[in-house]
Backbone:
């Protein structure tokens, strides 16, 4: 009987709380077959621009202060960001598909 008020309070709180909510992870979408074609690793900047057109934005290069830190260029397209080391593609990152998707943070400008 001593714990009955605490149990009732706990049950009341559980009843008031909303239902379970799930986020869509970018990893889940990335593991599915890509609906949008993206540049392959190793393509040059010229090849990427020829195949995908001019980027919406070319962000300032990062790195390059030392030989061990190569210059990284980033091009923003509507569906993804392309990362280049010197002039070759090293990675492509998809943008979030919706506000509930947990994915990459916007690039530092």
Residues:
């Amino acid at each position: 009987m001593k714990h009955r008020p605490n149990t009732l309070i706990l049950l009341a709180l559980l009843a008031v709380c909303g239902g379970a909510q799930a986020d869509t992870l970018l990893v889940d979408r990335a593991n599915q077959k890509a609906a949008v074609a993206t540049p392959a690793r190793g393509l040059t900047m010229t090849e990427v621009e020829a195949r995908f057109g001019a980027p919406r934005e070319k962000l300032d290069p990062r790195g390059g202060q030392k030989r061990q830190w190569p210059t990284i260029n980033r091009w923003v397209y509507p569906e993804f960001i392309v990362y280049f080391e010197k002039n070759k593609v090293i990675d492509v990152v998809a943008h979030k598909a919706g506000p509930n998707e947990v994915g990459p943070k916007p690039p530092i400008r």
